[in-house]
Amino acid sequence: MLDECKALANETRLRILEWLKDPVANFACAGEAAELGVCAGLIQQKAGTSASTMSAHLATLQRAGFLRATRRGQWIYYRRDEDRIRAFTDELHSALQKGS
After folding, report:
1. How deeply is 54 buried, as exposed, middle or buried, from its count of CB atoms within 10 A (0-12, 13-18, 19+)?
2. What is the mean pLDDT of residues 16-27?
3. Which of 10, 43, 44, 100 is most buried, by the most CB atoms less than 10 A from its CB?
4. Between the CA of residue 20 and those of 52, 65, 96, 97, 99, what are the distances in Å?
């Protein structure tokens, strides 16, 4: 659970997860967003970061299990892994309940 918490300890990564919760509302790629996810370039553009910084953020979220990536040609599309996010929040809730 430590890797997941570290992944969420950054404001930009939290915003990425928030944006990807509703990609149609947050990105101009409504058709692709529904099936594949959102391409890294659009996420980078919205966040206003360099490509290397965005790559590091996306890799961190992917390692934590919060994002899934799909490669199509030269593009990589990202979408949330809702099952993994739900499992993490359940695990966190359970861990916090034990402490009380």
Report:
1. buried
2. 93
3. 43
4. 19, 14, 26, 29, 32
